[in-house]
Amino acid sequence: MSDALEIPGWKHVYSGKVRDLYVPADTPDGESAERMLVVASDRVSAFDVVLSPGIPGKGELLTTLSLWWFDQLAGADGGERVPNHLASEEIPAEVAGRAMIVRSLDMLPVECVVRGYLTGSGWAEYVESGTVCGIPLPEGLQNGDRLPEPIYTPAYKAPMGEHDENISYAQTVDLVGEERAAALRDRSLEIYRRAAAAAEAKGLILADTKFEFGLDDDGVLRLADEVLTSDSSRYWDAASWKTGTTPAERMASFDKQIVRDWLAANWDKQGEPPSLPAEIVERTVARYRELLERMTA
Ligand code: ATP
Ligand code: MG
């Protein structure tokens, strides 16, 4: 599905579940370009399906938060500079506020997931086997508990239309080689720690997140895609987490969990998913906005 726009100077080449990709209009068909325009739509996906309606304003909120994080990680927070994929700030007016011009990178097929807290699919696996992605954890943890140490739980980034699957660290070595696998892991853990500390200072918990990296023409590893957004991460309110007694109270989310929870309760994952009720759409956009305001304040 695509609601690709006509954008002077650019041509549409691909639509993912959430983003539409464009290359400069003079790029020969089938050839890759040095730069890409990545437009975040208001589409929302959960369990790998795109839902309707979209979430009005979501593309802009996520782009603003992503750009803010790229800037922080590029050194605005006083830390070490993490190379990223941003290439220009001259965004076409048609998509102002919800697009980035990026270097087209050779993307590594690993979704670099870091978890500081136990929930979601990690919690489900822990209940089954006491592990998360094969990593053994202490006994007696509850849904939403903080892990003793953040853990790196990579997934294979499946080609278009297929489901991503959790893989072991050893499998990432098979995919990208030893040196790069270690770089992905170490850099992901480092960025997570830095971002989680920044979130904590704003009364927020960064429970988990997912990064994607790619290589530029000089072989430099760059942080790509979106970063630390409410689509790619779980954020909770730290005060609620401390005092809450039920999972719902502890994990007061600023992220897509609102949509996932509603869908899980109202769809058996067969056939077309039901439309999102207006109340869920409004709650989601309000929480995405609140996260952006609190994080960037
Ligand atoms: P799918 O592509 O399987 O639908 P998705 O839903 O994650 O996955 P989107 O997030 O909507 O896709 O689209 C963004 C796409 O652009 C992703 O496939 C992502 O890996 C890719 N991407 C992000 N940054 C870059 C970059 N700098 N260079 C090349 N590809 C990139
Ligand atoms: Mg994506």
**Helix residue percentage:** 25-40%
Largest sheet: 6 strands, antiparallel
Specify the CATH class of the largest domain.
Alpha Beta
Radius of gyration: 19 Å
Q: Give me the CATH superfamily of the largest domain.
A: ATP-grasp fold, B domain
GO molecular function: ATP binding; phosphoribosylaminoimidazolesuccinocarboxamide synthase activity
Keywords: ATP-binding, Ligase, Nucleotide-binding, Purine biosynthesis
GO biological process, one term: 'de novo' IMP biosynthetic process
Catalytic activity: 5-amino-1-(5-phospho-D-ribosyl)imidazole-4-carboxylate + L-aspartate + ATP = (2S)-2-[5-amino-1-(5-phospho-beta-D-ribosyl)imidazole-4-carboxamido]succinate + ADP + phosphate + 2 H(+)
Structural write-up:
Pfam families: SAICAR_synt (PF01259). Belongs to the SAICAR synthetase family. It catalyses: 5-amino-1-(5-phospho-D-ribosyl)imidazole-4-carboxylate + L-aspartate + ATP = (2S)-2-[5-amino-1-(5-phospho-beta-D-ribosyl)imidazole-4-carboxamido]succinate + ADP + phosphate + 2 H(+). Strands 9, 12, 13, 14, 15 and 18 form a six-stranded antiparallel beta sheet that branches. A five-stranded antiparallel beta sheet has the order 1-2-3-7-6. A three-stranded antiparallel beta sheet has the order 8-16-17, with no helix packed on it. The mean pLDDT is 95. It has 297 residues and is an alpha+beta fold. The protein folds into two domains: 10-103, Phosphorylase Kinase, domain 1 (2-Layer Sandwich), CATH 3.30.200; 106-296, D-amino Acid Aminotransferase, Chain A, domain 1 (2-Layer Sandwich). The protein is globular. It starts with 9 loop residues before the first strand and ends with a helix. It contains eight helices and 18 strands. Adenosine-5'-triphosphate binds next to strand 2 and strand 7.
